[in-house]
Amino acid sequence: MVDSVIFLAAEFPAHWHTYLLDEGDILRQRGMTVHYTTTRAPAADMRSEILARRAGRIDHLFPVSLADAAWFLWHPGALVRALGYVAGTRAGGLRGRLRRAALLPSVARAIRLARRRGAPHLHVHSFGDAAHVAAMAHRAAGLSYTLVLHGTLSVWGGDIEQKARGAARIFAVTRPLARDLSALCPAERIDFVTMGIDLDRFTVRDDRDRQAPFTLLSVGRLHLSKGHRFMARALARLAEKGHRPRWLIVGTGPHRAEIEAEIARLGLADQVSLLGARTSDEIAELLHRVDAFSLTSTGPGEAAPVSVMEAMASGVPVICSRIGGTADMIDSGVDGFLTEQEDVDGIAAALERLITDPAQRDRMARAARARAERDFDGRVLSGRIHDALRSI
What we know:
The chain is an alpha/beta fold. It is built from 17 helices and 13 strands. The strands form two sheets. It has a seven-stranded parallel β-sheet with strand order 3-2-1-4-5-6-7, sandwiched between helices. The chain has a six-stranded parallel β-sheet with strand order 10-9-8-11-12-13, with helices on both faces. Strand 6 (169-172), helix 9 and strand 7 form a beta-alpha-beta unit. Helix 4 (76-87) crosses helix 7 (129-141). The protein is elongated and about 70 Å long. The termini are close together. Pfam families: Glyco_transf_4, Glycos_transf_1. Keywords: Transferase.
């Protein structure tokens, strides 16, 4: 039975890691001891000081100490078992196996941290190198581990079966991901548990000024995969019809310059504000001031976008691309709009309906909140993870 756990995530705490702290808080409320560990610190522009303070002590697997690097020398049996795991991996051929062997000092650090913290279980919110580290720590020293799959299998670097073989449980945050995993791993070890949110933080406020300009909000990394350019093109088409809503964009990322250039090229600079990073509480306040929310992502990266859950919980109609598990989250036309990826016409049509039909907007807002209460309650969903961990 697990009662003390290490949460392991890549580049924690980044601005989008609120869900990890929420999950950890609920596990702590239920009597479990939670420690936070990251593979390495996030880049400066991605690090959230608010989340760092909330997490408290955060351990790092890299860089390692000399004692970490030397640990396997004093535990040759563990070294043989860890190398046996490396030999069984296939992705990237010999170069890939050498790269995974280079993780051994971090594996030793994870083992030493687990023993020092009295937490023999790793709860890994990643299927990348962090999953390799957990699997090797399991083989080398008997640590138990669970994995949480947040995105399409193809983005996690291969060797999915090897990473998952020793896992006590595997949590998939969407039904499609659970189906994909079941083709590679025993179905009885796979649970579909989406990431939940704090419904007390994201609430509906009914005093929105109806005379204020229609305002749209997007929250996410400034990355081309988030599809900001497709919403920008939809706004340009609506401008031709005389609709000029405001667009607030929250987030930081590597493609800010490209997004700004597209906005300027389309003549939207006076409608669009890039707000940079914002805390969870600030986002909750912004959601009280807007009329719609958009996430028009493309490609394989999304799973169950937490930002969409937060908007729906706030009674804000969403326009979202069909990606990952969004079709399970949104009943298109009822509690939000789903569009095909890169479908500028579809995005523009959905936004125009929200602008021109306040009654539908109100109906959709009520339905969105009801969906959030039914499907996205973090206390219920994290409770399921707690119960699964306690059963190990």
